[in-house]
């Protein structure tokens, strides 16, 4: 890092950093810029939800959860930051709960489904 601004822009919640890196093949040209996300912490044992499984209902984020009896429930969740193609679920879901990730347009609360499971790798980094 070469330079940084001390204040966060209140309008955008961002601040500027200036860095220096090797560019031997001139991949980045003068005048170009990049947006970079920098993690500020690690959340151990985070519950990850595929982005495609999340819907918005009256400004609330919701997912369809499949109970042990294979009945669908609509659940409001609070989401945190994105990680690859997932959201971090801050509340509303527990590890190991099954959710509907495909065909969410067809399911309704109380409906009985025959789920096929696609486990998420527990070795995500």
Mean pLDDT: 86
* Count of discrete alpha- or pi-helical segments spanning 4 or more residues: 0
The counted number of beta strands is 9
Structural class label: mainly beta
Compute the CA-based radius of gyration: 20 Å
Helix content: under 10%
Described by strand count, sense and barrel closure, the largest sheet is: 4 strands, antiparallel
Q: What is the rounded distance between the termini?
A: 25 Å
| Contiguous uncertain segments of 5+ residues | none
Based on CA inertia axes, which overall geometry fits?
A: elongated
Instruction: Tell me what portion of residues adopts beta-strand conformation.
Output: 25-35%
- Give the topology string: H per helix, E per strand: EEEEEEEEE
Can you put this structure into words, describing what you see?
It is a single chain. The protein is built from no helices and 9 strands. It has 125 residues and is mostly beta strands. The radius of gyration is 20 Å and the shape is elongated. The model has no long low-confidence stretch (mean pLDDT 86).
Secondary structure topology:
Elements: E1 3-4, E2 17-18, E3 47-50, E4 55-57, E5 60-66, E6 72-76, E7 78-83, E8 86-91, E9 98-99
Antiparallel strand pairs: 1-2, 3-8, 4-5, 5-6, 5-9, 7-8
Distinctive features:
single chain; 125 residues; mainly beta; elongated
């Amino acid at each position: 890092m070469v330079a940084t601004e001390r204040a966060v822009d209140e309008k955008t919640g961002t601040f500027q950093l200036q860095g220096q890196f090797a560019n031997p093949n001139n991949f980045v040209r003068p005048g170009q810029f990049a947006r970079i996300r920098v993690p500020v912490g690690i959340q151990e044992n985070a519950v990850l939800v595929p982005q495609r499984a999340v819907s918005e209902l009256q400004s609330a984020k919701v997912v369809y959860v499949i109970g042990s009896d294979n009945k669908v429930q609509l659940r409001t969740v609070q989401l945190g930051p994105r990680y690859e193609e997932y959201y971090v679920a801050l509340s509303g879901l527990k590890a190991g709960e099954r959710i509907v990730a495909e065909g969410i347009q067809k399911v309704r609360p109380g409906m009985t489904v025959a789920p096929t499971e696609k486990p998420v790798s527990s070795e995500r980094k």
